[in-house]
Amino acid sequence: MQKCVTIPQVKRTCLSYFNINTSVTQMDSPFLDVLFCCKKVIAGMLSLALVAGAVPASVGGFLTGGTAIVASAATEVASGDCGTTGHQTEVTWTLDSDGVLTISGTGPMASYSQKNMPWENYRKDKTPKITKIVVEPGITKIGDYAFYNCTSLNKVTIPNTVTSIGASSFKWCYLLDSVYIPNSVISIYSSAFNGCQNLKTVNFEDRIASSLSIGSGCFVSCNELATITPSGLMYSSGGKTYSLSEDALRSGNITILPNVTLALVPAVEATCKTNGNSAYYEGSNGKYYTLINNEYVEIEPDSWIIPATGHTYDETSPMWTWIRNGDTYDVSVKFKCKNCGDIVTPEETPTLTITENDGIKTFTASVTYNIIEYQSTKNESTSYTITINGNEKQYKYGTQVKAVANVPAGQYFEGWYETGTDNKISGSKTYYFYATRNMNIEPRYSDNIVTAQPVLTMNISDREDIGNGKNKVSFTYDWELPDGYTLEKAAIVRSYEVAEPNISTSDTNVHYTALTNARGTYRINLTMGTVSAAKTLRVCGYIKYKDNNGESHEAYTDVLTSAPLNQ
After folding, report:
1. For the chain, which residues make up each domain, given as ranges?
2. Planar angle of CA 210, 211, 214, nearest 5 degrees
3. Chain centroid, CA 98 distance in Å
4. Is residue 51 pLDDT above 90, yes or no?
5. How is domain 76-256 classified at the architecture level of CATH?
6. Under a CB-based contact definition with an 8 Å cutoff, are residues 542 and 492 in contact?
7. N or C, where is the chain less crowded by C-beta within 10 Å?
């Protein structure tokens, strides 16, 4: 008696001459003499193969004493088509030398009688006998009598693309001891596993939405059947519901009911600070699922998490506070997230630099936040020329100015206008405003009663180069509503991309004011980064108000344009 070793697949060189392809347990003496005589030659050749890297190093010690060599590798024995009529080539079969029958392709298998399947001779008579069946994903139906009377079959793999298992398809497969039924299967037809005398375990995948119809006698004569998983399955028969047992499964003509209930967890959008999640389902079996193409697919825990987005800032985010302190300023800044509105105070305190040129003192506050530098400037000596009805006077920036119209007898006040234009800026006899630009205004009168109307004015300053490729520009928006009118909201609307921006257009920034009074002034100082400084800026004022009848109206000022400094 000689020892027998199976070695990994190698090129079938010298070994093939001796037809050594099965385990050797007994040999006639003359053949042994020849074999052992050649053993040294073979060992030398394999040693060379080892050096060349053709054989795994683990084979290096197999030639000792009286050890015989056995090379094993599965090879194709037979193959063909097994699709339905008109679609035969869409499903194919292959049988290898290890007895593994593989069904591949897309769609249903053909159905057969007891003896006309293509692999008929390999069921129990011809070598290799079928010992394992692998149905690959893509197959949707196992045909009637497909694997009938495969007496050496002990293992079968059914993918979750199969929806039905045909009648008598595994009948009299005596050695098959377990089977797994995926939840894609909705029908098992009569006698499918009839006579599988060694079948001990039937494992059903959890069923979520679909029932499973079990035909008559599907598991009859499966006398060893002792385990059905998962436990607690229910079935219906004759309009009543029962707990699934081995006897009920053997009898057939039952419908196994879904055993998993799902609870929907709705989708939640991620915010700046909190994670969100996609919609998913919690199963009563402790697993999690998502719905894809109307099918419930199991997913890993926490795979539904959408990470928090983090705060987003742009050039409009910094909110600067200037407090006079002797001949300088104390400056602080906060940043407002453009998405959620949260306000954050950076750890870094703004640095303040002071320059003086031609009698103008300029204060520049700088801070770096999230790797981006932000600046705000204040010119101490800035003043504007305001001319009211021919009277000229200088006012420092931000000074409140009062203009009073003296209405001649017999006339009615029409409004304040920019001198020489039809640009009406107020309908109030006593007009209060702030010095934010040079102005020349005059009152106008009419012989007829003038109906009060809302007055909107928008002004934009010249761009200012503040260094490092950045610009600064200011917007001032004034509105005035007649008595009895109510302000709902007001905003400054700006865009680098849209020629006529409004609160609904894309690529538009809308800055709402917190003011709620019927007469107001809203000013924004914008620091433009190097990219924005090279673009044309368009800006207008927006207002929504209710008239004295309670009806809502919306209005915009004309669009003003600020071109880059190099144009």
Report:
1. 4-71, 76-256, 263-306, 318-379, 382-448
2. 145
3. 45
4. no
5. Alpha-Beta Horseshoe (3.80)
6. yes
7. C
